[in-house]
Design goal:
Elements lengths: L6 E4 L5 H9 L4 H4 L8 H12 L3 E8 L2 E12 L2 H4 L1 E10 L8 H15 L2 E6 L6 H9 L14
Parallel strand pairs: 4-5
Antiparallel strand pairs: 1-2, 2-3, 3-4
């Protein structure tokens, strides 16, 4: 078996610890995530809400049974574009041991294929303006900054 192959699957509850660890492992994530033991119950509650919703998928990338990446896909029906569906990619992270090895590219390519398989006409994502490297990464994969995104913290 080729030990360099990245595989993908729906996340399980047992993956949650590693997922939160990856989400917290950068400058921005360390300010908003709480990676501690035990994990705050809010993560488990969110996990259960995601897995109960057929239009949400929490996907992990793994190699040799080690979780090396994560992303959440949300499929949204719209009245615009003649009632078309879109996919939103959120929470993309790669484990430190797998960075700069193509895992991020594989994650996004997998998400694009999954969105096509679900009949989506568009796939969208946002990246924090404090992540210029991420913006360049997504642009290299074909994403275009065609809209100005706004957020309101509640």
């Amino acid at each position: 078996m080729d030990e360099t192959i990245v595989k993908f699957r729906i996340a399980t509850e047992e993956d949650l610890d590693k997922i939160v660890e990856m989400l917290a492992d950068d400058v921005l994530g360390s300010k908003r995530e709480r990676y501690e033991q035990p994990l705050p119950k809010s993560y488990l509650q969110a996990f259960h809400a995601i897995t109960a919703d057929p239009n949400n998928e929490l996907i992990v990338a793994y190699r040799n049974n080690n979780i090396i990446g994560v992303q959440q896909l949300t499929f949204i029906p719209y009245i615009t574009h003649q009632g078309g569906w879109r996919a939103t990619i959120e929470g993309v992270r790669t484990a430190p041991s797998a960075r700069n090895s193509g895992v991020g590219t594989h994650l996004i390519q997998w998400a694009i294929k999954r969105a096509k398989d679900r009949g989506c006409h568009l796939i969208q994502l946002t990246t924090d303006k404090g992540r210029p490297d991420a913006l360049r990464f997504y642009e290299r994969l074909g994403f275009k900054a065609t809209h100005e995104g706004l957020k309101l913290k509640l």
